[in-house]
Structures are given as structure tokens and as C-alpha cells.
Amino acid sequence: MVALLLAGLSACNGLRTNGSDEPSGRAKRMRVVVGEIREIGLPSRGDTTLQLVGTSENQEIVEVSRRELASEDGEPGKTAPAVFLVKGVTNGTAKVVFSEKRTGEEGPGRIRKTYLVEVVSQ
């Protein structure tokens, strides 16, 4: 019986998300060419107290910026998805993390998506 309990707990640990939309240790892979810009859209929760942030662990390899979109009714930022631009700068690999946190909150926030971006020459 104890063995079944331990097996069940082990299985649950493999599905843990650590507060993120991605399973633990799972980074989505992306390959871009130097100079290429890719868009990544994340659904906005419509909560003005939360901000979505995209960061690159190495900005010399991958740059991340946010493109502001107006919602369909023309009001900027209402519930439009958050769109980030990921640009390959030079050859290499860098982790890009998209997270959300309350305005003014310290620390990295809650991870929503993680990408492992490989930048290659043409």
C-alpha cells in the first residue's frame, strides 16, 4: 500500500507546473536565423494589476521586446493578446522566459512560457 502511495506521488511530481503553463523543465524549442524576428502571442488575462514580461537570459544572442496591440474596439491594451517579438542577434542559444507578476512586485513572477531559442546563420 505504501508502494502504491509513493508511486502515485512520483507520477504527480512529473506533472507539476510550478505555477507555470509549461510542465516542469519543459522549454519549447525555437530556431531562428540571425536577424529574423518571430512573434509570440500570449493570452492576456484582462487584469490591469498584472503585467506580462519577456526576458532573454542572453540579450547578445536573443532580444525580446513587446509589441502593444489595440483591442478590436480600439482601446489600447484592453484584452488584446500580449505579443512579444523575439529577434535572433548572433549565433548561439538562449533561454527566453515569459512571466507575469503584479505591478510593483519584486522577483521573477509566475512563469507562463519558456523557450529555448537557437540562433543560426543563414
Radius of gyration: 18 Å
Oligomer: single chain
Please, how many helices? Answer: 1
Overall number of strands: 7
Mean pLDDT: 78
Which term fits the overall shape? elongated
Name the strands of the widest sheet in spatial order.
1-7-6-3
The structure class reads mainly beta
**Number of discrete domains:** 1
Provide the β-strand percentage band: 35-45%
- Proportion of helical residues: under 10%
The major beta sheet can be summarized as: 4 strands, mixed
CATH topology: Immunoglobulin-like
What does this structure look like?
The protein is mainly β. The protein has one domain (27-120): Immunoglobulin-like, CATH 2.60.40. The chain has one helix and seven strands; from the N terminus they run H-E-E-E-E-E-E-E. The protein has one helix spanning 2-13; strands at residues 28-33, 37-42, 50-56, 62-67, 82-88, 92-102, 110-120. Strands 1-7-6-3 form a four-stranded mixed beta sheet, with no helix packed on it. Strands 2-5-4 form a three-stranded antiparallel beta sheet, with no helix packed on it. A hairpin with a 7-residue loop joins strand 6 and strand 7 (110-120). It is elongated. It starts with a helix and ends with a strand. The model is unreliable at 1-23 (pLDDT under 50).
